[in-house]
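hey can u check if this looks right to u? its 343 residues, i copy pasted from the old doc so theres a chance i mangled smth
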Amino acid sequence: MAYKVAVVGATGAVGREILKILAERNFPASEVFALASPRSTGQNVSFGDKTVLKIKNLETFDFTGVDIALFSPGAAVSAIHAPRAAGQGCVVIDNTSQFRMEPDVPLVVPEVNPQALKRFRKRNIIANPNCSTIQMVVALKPLHDIVRIKRVVVSTYQSVSGAGKEGMDELFNQTKGSFVHDMPTMEQFTKPISFNVIPHIDKFMEDGATKEEWKMAVETRKILDPDIQVFATCVRVPVFIGHAESVNVEFEGPITVAQASAALKKAPGVGLFDKREDAGYITPLDCAGEDDVFVSRLRRDPTVPHGLAFWCVSDNLRKGAALNAIQIAEEMHRQGLLVRQPA
């Protein structure tokens, strides 16, 4: 069976990555529509090596007859058009934060909770988690299957592509300007990002956490286990692509490094590269363009009774967004869930 697929937000960084990966993985698409805002209508985007798609206007597009829509246009746009598409019988896989914590919308990472997809019918919408949450739960799942996780403390090192093309442009322009003594212009970030790190992603909340940090906690509980406690500090770093995380995990019972290593080696979507030597670990630069979540620096944490620590990195535009959305569609196809419902 082949499906009609719409890519919403096709001119953005994630939208372009979705089109690229759909072609790379030979997703069974009979027709692909590239959708964006009216100002982008008529522009061309690439789909694979040989196909060029002309952008259609999202605001006037009729989703009737479209089987799957992969959304990444921003939360405010998804709030309007994702329910519209779903109401016209199209299955929506949404990359934005708009629907993630709504109880009747599944929040899915296919390697972790594919069973949750069966609950999508009520809204016809599936939510893609936050990029930093996705890579962490992929690494945590095989460990949680050995011994239940009690608590996670995580510090993230998140690339500027998490803020879209504008964030990448700001890093590039500030870095270039620093060599000719230009004063940095700050539009996407609250402080200069070039040669700096910023402990602030998304809005501040009343308790002093940022919304990005809150997302990691609540999304992990929704995806993996409602009893896991998560404390996050999320930091923007001057890297173009690839998020990194330093993760400390406290378990309810004993677990050894050897047990964890064996489980991670077998886990789908995980690449374990852990050599206790110079360069025996994966960095964001190494993981750009790769599909896996890479785990390195796995070791015992002696500060708690049953603790492990590790470093994990992933391409946030791929596994953290576009690839995970496509894997959701692939898993729905595998489970026979993509049977078109009447509008």
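The helical segments are 13-24, 75-87, 131-144, 164-178, 211-223, 257-266, 284-287, 318-334.
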